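[Archive record]
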Amino acid sequence: MVARALRGVWALVCLVLLLGASSARVEAPAEEYAAKAQFLVDMAVYFRWPEGREAKGPFVVAVLGRSPFGARLDALVRARTHQGRPMKVAYAARLADLGPCDMVFICRSERRNGAEILEWAKGRGLLTVAEDRELVDRGAMVGLILDAERLRMHLNLKALEGEGMGASAQLMRLAVIAP
């Protein structure tokens, strides 16, 4: 129990350092996606999933579209767990290829399919994360948005609540809350 609490504190410290009070300076695309990969791995503990959602097997972080992460995301999830479940990354080029997952990162390459993806995600109890502010405004739950060389986290509380999900108070203090 103490180890779990310490892991939670350590993850929050990493998140604060990474986003630096809701933003982190990003110098190049490689740094942008290194920061986004770290955030995807660390952020799960700051969300509440819907009551009664069956959580079995690995905790799957799906990347939908052309992955910008290279091997970095796979390396970060290796030997990591979320609520006792081993973490795993799954990649899908298109929505039709996407299998069961707990969190889906919608790559920029899928911007044009955003409405279809968000409609597909409804009622599935999974966390939707986008790189596009417009997708967050249209219903993605989390946005990891590069704005003037700063990576900012946006939260769409209405989308979270609509799926019976929530974000921790610590996370909400760090985020830009979408209208």
